[in-house]
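Thread: Newbie trying to understand structure tokens

Hi all, I'm a second-year student working on a class project, and my supervisor (Dr. K.) asked me to get a predicted structure for one chain before our next meeting. I've only ever worked with sequences, so writing a 3D structure as a token string is new to me. If someone could post the tokens and maybe explain what I'm looking at, I'd be very grateful. Here's the chain:
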Amino acid sequence: MTTRSQKKSNSTSKSLFENSSFSIITLPHPANGNLSKYCLDNVHNKIFEVMTFSEPYRSWFIGDFVKSDGSILMITPINPLFLVLPRLKEQCLNRAVPLNDLLSEKGFDKIIDFVKNMDNIGDLKGPAEMKAYKYNEEKTLNWLEERIHKVAKVLNEKNVHVVSGAVSSTFVSSNLNNDSIDEEFYLKYAHGIISEYLQEDLVEKLEKRFNFKPEIIETVGKKRKSEVDLNNSNKKAKNESTCEDFNDVKAGVLLNGSSETKKKPTAKEKARQKAASGTKTISSFFTKK
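---
Reply by user tm_fold:
Sure, no problem. This is what the structure looks like when written as tokens:
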């Protein structure tokens, strides 16, 4: 039996992949400025971040074929205010700027209609129809603190493993009793999740607000760091592989005038070629006489 919530979820999925309102744009990531992909769902007025989960030595079996690239593309909803926050913080620290001017650059102009509740991170100045905002750090920290509490509550309800340990919890929930885990562990883990979308100065100011215990920072911090390092290593391996392939092709074009590259034989290959000299191939025994 399909519940009302399931129907709503299914319709959201269809809006992304089966209608003309679905589009993809490129914007700087709010934490580091690196270009990232985002999906715009005009039907439900939502923005989704496109992420790649990739590990080395992973493949997919599809029918009778093996797909060597085992990476998985995932989309997760993101609050548009996270995308606007770095620009507001940079350009509207000492003055108010209309939202249309703040988001006038290519890419950002596509998300103007998605941005709501700017009062959570800024102060409205001048006539309301101008929508001119000035950055308010106190409001921003209050809003982020509220977000962390909401994420921590969901982590607790979903029984997510938030403490470091030997058991991997990438795709499974912990069997630990939530009652035995201090709420501060969930808050620290939630802080780590939200921090991935914030610049470093806001991360530090937000952490001071919670005043986490040293042992919690050590325990939860290790787990979050290991997960981030894994993702970074996957991206690094993928980028290095791409660069190596590109360099091989480039070298082949320069030296041979084509995209084919000639590799020097190794010592084992030289020895094998020498041993095979003067011998016949196995196919030669089956030719017509």
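A couple of things are worth pointing out once you decode it. Residues 1-13, 165-177, 233-262 have pLDDT under 50 and may be disordered. The longest helix spans residues 214-256. Feel free to ask follow-ups in this thread.
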